[in-house]
């Protein structure tokens, strides 16, 4: 069993900073702005070869009467409650610099009701000059206490020892509560990233695919800030979905937090096997959607396009809209377009089917002779023009350089004079002949040198 730990505390006490330090990644966004983290964020780390599962949560706050309609705040709190339920024990983080607050007592009262083992972590000790501020926290009556500074990495080794020892003390009955207890060793893991503008339905699609309200959804653009990873398990395959923050136009990015969220979304494209571009079909394809598509195309990763909110389109207009969309996306050859309604769970199986198709394509291996025959066939159908020097451009043979993305090396003479248009023609020809319409291909042209030609000095 893998012990599960949840990080609990008020906003800006250092939960996400500790989370990132433990998992050795920048998975959670960090900011002095309150409640930067909204969803549950998950990660793994090891102590003495023992694996631990850790959950970062939103800061807990009081609920005032006028805030009962604050949807995001309420849902963030609900996500925290779910995380506590999933955990084996709790790390309760407080701020040594600010000292004890009424909210700290309020949070402690809430988590004690859950009957979970609690480790008190006093963060930001580097900012404290008076020991009295730290001693006050001992009034909580928590036995296991660690004093740390995440920024300066002080006390972290002691904290790791405490976590390790506590995990050993947990009974088998407690560990059964770990919601990962049924995790199997899957043969295949496919990483999928959902990307698009704000409020196009990325989070709703993932929630419906995994059949769980795992990510907060709202009509308020920018609800998702962190890159949230969840998984769906099937027969011998695990689909690992990453929900990303919506990407706005540059002139509409108001805060530094928005810029960091969107930069993180862009970086996630390279870290996943497949990208799914989500577009709101009710609004239509706009310049920002085309900009996102162009960005994904340039990354040379596997991708397809999903048009969400298809239920909002009347039957009489559906064919016309499909024609318009195909025309707008005519610059992308062989791309798969899927129309769905996340709200009514329509078309979700098509997404899984397309992921399976792309994965099967990525497994294909092609021999040099097979690739060379296809190149020869392409040249016969559409002959190469003469080079700038007046000498003939010839393509001799091709071979596979690497996979994911597919990298094909083509040897010949005068290859540096091959036009950009002809290179595109070869790429699309190869996709068709190799029967991999969803797989991006990178072509590298290399001039073959005749070893029998002596150079004159």
From TrEMBL:
One of its GO terms (molecular function) is GTP binding. The keyword Ion transport does not apply. One of its GO terms (biological process) is ribosome biogenesis. It comes from the Bacteria. Residues 367-446 form the GTPase Der C-terminal KH-domain-like domain. Residues 4-124, 191-309 form the G domain. The keyword Nucleotide-binding applies. It holds the Pfam family KH_dom-like. Keywords: GTP-binding, Nucleotide-binding, Repeat, Ribosome biogenesis. GTP 2 binds at residues 196-203, 243-247, 308-311. GTP 1 binds at residues 9-16, 56-60, 123-126. InterPro entries: GTP-bd, GTPase_Der, KH_dom-like, KH_dom-like_a/b, P-loop_NTPase, Small_GTP-bd. Associates with the 50S ribosomal subunit. NCBIfam families: GTPase_EngA (TIGR03594), small_GTP (TIGR00231). Belongs to the TRAFAC class TrmE-Era-EngA-EngB-Septin-like GTPase superfamily. EngA (Der) GTPase family. GTPase that plays an essential role in the late steps of ribosome biogenesis. This is GTPase Der. It comes from Buchnera aphidicola. The lineage of its organism: Bacteria, Pseudomonadati, Pseudomonadota, Gammaproteobacteria, Enterobacterales.
